[in-house]
Amino acid sequence: PMALSSSSSSSSVRPPPGPVQGAADAEGDFEVRGEETTEGSSGRNRGEGKDAKKRKKGTRREFDWSKATFGHFVIKIAYVGTKYFGLAWQDPSACPNCPTVESKLFEALIKTCLIRDRTSCSYSRCGRTDKGVHAAGNYIALQLREKPRKEGASGDDDYDYAAMLNGVLSSDIRMLACCRAPPGFDARFSCKYRAYQYYFPLCGENLDRMREAAQSFVGAHDFRNFCKMDIEAVTNYRREVLSVSVREKPGGVGEFSVTGLAFLWHQVRNMVAVLLLVGAGHEEPGIVRELLDIEKHPRKPIFEPADESGLVLRDCGFLDIPFAPGVPAPLAGETSAQSDFAASASAAETLQQMWAQSRRVAAVQECLAAAAGGGAFASEFRPREKHTPLLRRGVGPSFEEKVKAFEVKKRRKSDAGTSAEPIEGGG
């Protein structure tokens, strides 16, 4: 983080050393509370030996917000979601051991004195990724404390917010870029489209069959059979997919890319699960069209979504954001000119090191797999499993049945709240 000027006022105290020092401008912003540290005329608290140093080191410095001004900024973020319970902040009292990307981000923002608290910074997010899902290009917008303007200065001489936050965040969360937000910007509602990519180990899948099936996703469809229905928050399950692609990547990895205006809960992972069944020869490519026909199939067959560890929110489209892809949306699997922007050096270095380490781990794992299989790594390996065709499986309740059950549950709760008699519950 960049070093900032400190006040010459005798009542101020320099910010503590380390990353936070660069975060807090000290033009009278720091004041001492608790243990006294200002030097008196007698020199009693001037410090004598180690005891005085310990007292000074242990003092608590409060930030003076009275002179702070704020501006609205957009930040592009990347993160490895493996150890997080999704992006969105969760109440610690309800889920005490559920770290999220936002919980760590708010801790960093407060530690660097860029916001006062979580609720007063006009925060908005773009893609709300689930537990274990990663992002290479997600976006947030919020009010951040501005760098004090010097007399006669013109233009926006802003802090290097990305470097400041990367200096205190865990290495698996990186701020890629930051700029001032256009008027009226909201990270969720200003988004024009979202692009996801899913990576899977190739085990002999027929990619041509997967491509044929995936093309049926393109267009506006009701995706209730390709998501986890949330009837309390969603009543319209129609979404528009702009483009899709299926291709092989180096290292025996397959990639499914999809770009759409918006997505439902677990939608991409359910799409991938069905495509993998098609690629393995268990289902015909026409199964996608069948499941998109909700008149014919109003109830979703029971199947598990693809593993969350392979899913990445690749990028999101916006207007007038220099480091975000614009309109029209690039085809799925392709990048725009904005995707080649120079990310924050602190983010680039960390992510490059992470990539290098992952290649080493992959090589070791390939070596072990080859030892178990005898000779070269068997890319055609496929776990043996008995397959029941999707259209012959049990089905879950339809949307209408879920709504009806939910209404019954609400009435029971309402009746229980007004009943004078205690209601017995099953053990």
Describe the structure in your own words.
With 427 residues, the protein is an alpha+beta fold. Helices cover 25% and strands 19% of the residues. The chain contains nine helices and eleven strands. The strands form two sheets. Strands 3, 4, 5, 6, 7, 8, 9, 10 and 11 form a nine-stranded mixed sheet that branches. The protein has a two-stranded antiparallel sheet with strand order 1-2. A hairpin with a 3-residue loop joins strand 9 and strand 10. It is globular.
- Portion in strands: 15-25%
Mean pLDDT, all residues: 84
Distance between the termini: 56 Å
Count every helix, treating DSSP H or I runs of 4 or more residues as helices: 9
Largest sheet: 9 strands, mixed
Which word captures the global form?
globular
**Structural class estimated from helices and strands:** alpha+beta
Residue stretches low in confidence (pLDDT < 50, at least 5 long) are: 1-47, 419-427
Query: What portion of residues is helical?
Result: 25-40%
**Element order: H for helix, E for strand:** HEHEEHEEHEEHEEEHHEHH
The count of β-strands is 11
Radius of gyration: 27 Å
Keywords:
427 residues; alpha+beta; nine-stranded mixed β-sheet; two-stranded antiparallel ribbon; 19% strand; disordered N terminus; disordered C terminus
Task: Draw up the topology in text.
Blueprint: H1 19-23, E1 30-33, H2 49-57, E2 60-63, E3 70-79, H3 101-111, E4 124-125, E5 134-145, H4 161-166, E6 173-180, E7 193-201, H5 207-214, E8 219-222, E9 238-249, E10 253-260, H6 267-279, H7 287-292, E11 311-317, H8 345-373, H9 399-418
Parallel strand pairs: 5-11
Antiparallel strand pairs: 1-2, 3-5, 3-6, 4-5, 7-10, 7-11, 8-9, 9-10
Helix pairs in contact: 5-6
